[in-house]
Amino acid sequence: MRPNTPHAVLTLQNSVTMGSHFFAMSTIQDTFLGMIHTFVLEKLLTHTTHNDFLQVMRQMIVFVHGALTRDTLEEDDETRAHVPYPKDIKSLVDILTLCNIGIMQHIFDFDTYTYSMNEPNSKLTTQQKDEHWKYDNNAVPLLNRRAAIHARGLSKDIIHWLNANYEIRDKADPQGKLGIGLANFAAGYLALQCSALFSYKEEAIKNGHEGVSNCTVNMLKRQIAGTFPCINDPFRKAIKEEMKMECFALGLPDDLMDCIAHTVTVDINRELPVDELCVVRTQGNYWKRE
CA angle, corner 263, sides to 249 and 233, nearest 5? Predict the structure, then answer.
């Protein structure tokens, strides 16, 4: 069964059922959609919480980062079949989706919205809410925080590597000089996903669906903003523009610089649909940081 598929288990008599989850790069976009639905609606959709899946996502990021940016796999290594080499737009978006999970993972961690030392899903007192808001005093274990920082850095490294080695071009003219930078494309894609998550959360709250315990609309907004604290971060600029925030982060300084354009454009007069784009290798294995 593919991820993000509504399903139920029906038995003819009282039974104990067992199941498992398999994560694949070929279905990573569906996995991310399932993460969003589970995060926003939680108990409306599922009877259990799988917080451990974030560790699996981090392991996938480590594997993909090594295979792509460091070429750590031998030619005859069977695991090369699982490496999402960016040969077309779909495979490129698969990689960027995994990177977005790495960048946003703490947002989807239920412990982020639990006060430090509290039991999961327990309600917060007024004092705890105040400290949680002011200091982000949550229940995420220290080892998980460090692992999240590491995975977030690797995710951004993958995007830097893609930007240095590939361009998005018009299928009708794949050798043309006009290319679309991967950095802008990646920033726009992440911004769209953050905006969609935020809008979905707002709509769910309006309809009486709390989702993850203690995760309010403002708390979600704060977590999204806190992921990109640097004013010059292109991801921050793109998200601010996409979410139309006058003050991007509650309690954090506003970014007064102009936002980058993240629409997929080839020139000032023409935009291209995604199905008319292709991915072209430009620099071999050359590694470049901006």
Answer: 35
Residues 158, 68: contact at Cβ < 8 Å?
A: yes
Structure tokens at 232: 């010059």
- DSSP state at residue 168: E
Angstrom distance (rounded) from CA 200 to CA 203? 5
Beta carbons of 143 and 186 less than 8 angstroms apart: no
Q: Using pLDDT thresholds of 50, 70 and 90, give the confidence band for residue 107.
A: very high
Per-residue pLDDT tens over the stretch 111-160: 898 887 666 667 778 888 888 777 888 888 889 999 999 999 999 999 99
Q: Can you tell me which residue has the tokens 């993000």?
A: 4
pLDDT in tens, 46-99: 766 677 889 999 999 999 999 999 888 888 888 888 898 888 888 999 999 999
- 253 close to 236: Cβ distance less than 8 angstroms: no
User: How many Cα atoms sit within 13 Å of 269 on the Cβ side?
Assistant: 0
**Helices 89-108 and 217-226: crossing angle, nearest 10°?**
120
Tell me how crowded residue 153 is: count the other CB atoms within 10 A of its CB. 14
